[in-house]
Amino acid sequence: MMNERKHQPTTTPIFESRYDAGRQLAAKLVGYKNESSVVLAIPNGGVPVAVPVALELATYLDLVIARKLPIPLLPEGGFGAVADDGNAILNDEVLKKFPLTEHQINFQINKVRSDIRQRSLLYRGTRPLPGIAGKTAIIIDDGLASGYTMMAAVASVRRRDPQSVVVAVPVASATALGEVEKLGVRVVTVSTAHVSKFYVADYYRYWDVLTDEQGVKCFKDWQARRSQNPAGGELPARISPRASKMSH
Question: For residue 140, what are the contacts with CB-CB under 8 A and spacing of at least 6?
Fold first, then answer.
């Protein structure tokens, strides 16, 4: 069912879809159009946001794969994140509330690392990571809730020697934005939310949790369109929404 929620939203949606969010975000990033830059999407939800940004900036689109570490028996929550280079970042404040054993932590880290490897094969196959040394790396997701998935992505990207790193998301909680800014990167948002309980989904009129298959299709559609028409082109129709909420 569309727009089914487990809580009562306290805000009015400001984006129709992830593509619309990407269009609005692209307008905030036009200053990078003439720079040597690359757009790196966090799949799956960050891919359709990143497509209009890459088209607007006329630059290359690739991925940085990072995933949260789910809390056992509470998978909507996370106690950190892992990026595609295998490194993990832990949220000490969450671990104080949910004291996990070393075995539980390592089990989840290894499981997420395996998930990331599988997702990388789905999206990239055996193609190596693109070279970003000396470029401005613009990392995109569909929102920042805790910020830990993005923090893991930033750490991974920095190890690839870019000239600078920019984090760009349509919407962020003020708390997450502050945490990511501590990394010394510029954070660009369309909207920053100063609320006690933040849900990325509340800011989208049509929201769905993208499957790997949907994310891969979006990425491959962009690759095909980009090779046929480097100057740009119409975006694909919005993926039919399946209502849900999701934290990053």
Answer: 22, 25, 39, 40, 41, 42, 46, 49, 50, 53, 168, 169
- Rg, the chain, Cα only: 17
Q: Are 57 and 84 in contact (CB under 8 A)?
A: no
Indicate the pTM of the whole model.
Answer: 0.85
What does each of the 248 residues of the chain score in pLDDT, given as a tens digit? 344 445 667 788 999 999 999 999 999 999 999 889 999 999 999 999 999 999 999 999 999 999 889 888 776 778 889 988 888 889 888 888 888 889 999 999 999 999 999 998 989 888 877 789 999 999 999 999 989 999 999 999 999 999 999 999 999 999 999 999 999 999 999 999 998 888 999 999 999 889 999 999 999 888 887 776 554 434 433 333 333 333 44
Residue 138's CB is within 10 A of a number of other CB atoms, namely: 29
Report the candidate in 139, 230, 223, 199 with the shortest Cα–Cα distance to residue 13: 199
